[in-house]
Specification:
heterodimer, A: 183 residues, mainly alpha, B: 123 residues, 4 helices
Chain lengths: 183, 123
């Protein structure tokens, strides 16, 4: 039902460039996109900026949405690409600063939480690599199927499964899951 | 026995998955004007895209004024030299058909104004 409503809104955008329909789509999915990017970046302000960029890219590419999968799956693919592009840009920026003699902040794998209080989830995300984090969040926080994650990350389904397996292994070894479960 | 082990393994896996889901779960983020900001950005971009063509036409017209005026002058001079060979009535009729620079510029400006007006009404 929700999928078909999304598809109808997309059709209105494609045919009439209906910004109100796009606004409705943004309102429906902003929470999931922002949550996804907040978990990936660990920075609320950056995540919100990237979310805005993500929706702008979605507006530009809306004709590319074929309607085969869910709209949120397609949107998270754009969000992930936006995140990777931003990482590349900041990495390049750090390289330039390095070249001119400034001390750049190393951030290739780091997950730094801006909030005062570090939650269990923050600790959990910190042990994962960027790729594992993205895939685990897509799977467990956004509820995407392995197939949808495979499309979003341009990885084979088998690789997605093994990344999830690896992520779970890391979490298992780094945390006492049973203790968390009972306490 | 084997199937029992497999079922148990799946049950354990399911429980772990449920646990992970609960750990990854977070409260929905309130919109707080986020959607409005995105739509504003989209509308601004649309407006700029629509404005690009008329603005390009105006700038192009402004750049073309001088060469166009020169061209008209050359054509007018040419027509005077042609009158010695071709009957004068024919030459005046032909030069009358060539649009003069002020008319071309005025036309371009009117067209641009109309396009802008239409876009504004549409928005």
């Amino acid at each position: 039902m929700r999928h078909s409503e999304d598809h109808q809104l997309v059709a209105r955008i494609v045919t009439d460039q209906d910004t109100a329909a796009f606004g409705e789509l943004v309102r429906r999915h902003q929470s999931q996109v922002r949550n996804f990017l907040r978990k990936l970046t660990g920075d609320i302000a950056l995540a919100d900026d990237l979310s805005q960029d993500c929706f702008m890219h979605a507006w530009d590419k809306i004709r590319g949405f074929t309607g085969r999968g869910s709209f949120i799956g397609w949107l998270l693919k754009i969000a992930y690409t936006t995140f990777l592009q931003s990482k590349r840009k900041s990495k390049r920026y750090a390289e330039i600063l390095d070249e001119v003699g400034h001390v750049a902040v190393a951030e290739s794998r780091s997950y730094t939480v801006q909030a005062d209080e570090v939650t269990d989830l923050d600790k959990l995300l910190a042990v994962l690599t960027e790729e594992e984090r993205a895939i685990m969040v897509m799977s467990y926080a956004c509820g995407l199927s392995h197939r949808e994650i495979s499309e979003a990350t341009a990885m084979p389904v088998g690789s997605v499964k093994s990344v999830i397996f690896r992520g779970k292994e890391k979490i298992r070894t780094s945390f006492d899951i049973k203790d968390h479960q009972h306490g | 026995m084997t199937s029992k082990i497999i079922n148990m393994a799946e049950r354990i896996k399911d429980a772990e998955d449920r646990l992970l889901e609960s750990m990854f779960e977070s409260a929905p983020i309130a919109d707080n004007g986020f959607g409005t900001r995105v739509v504003k950005r989209v509308r601004r971009r649309l407006w700029l895209q629509r404005l690009a063509l008329p603005v390009a036409a105006i700038i192009g017209g402004a750049v073309a004024i001088k060469p166009m005026a020169d061209l008209v002058t050359v054509v007018a001079n040419l027509s005077f030299s042609v009158t010695s060979v071709v009957p004068e009535e024919l030459v005046t009729a032909t030069t009358g058909l060539i649009p003069q620079a002020p008319f071309v510029v005025l036309g371009a400006m009117l067209l641009a104004a109309c396009l802008l007006g239409l876009r504004a009404i549409e928005d």
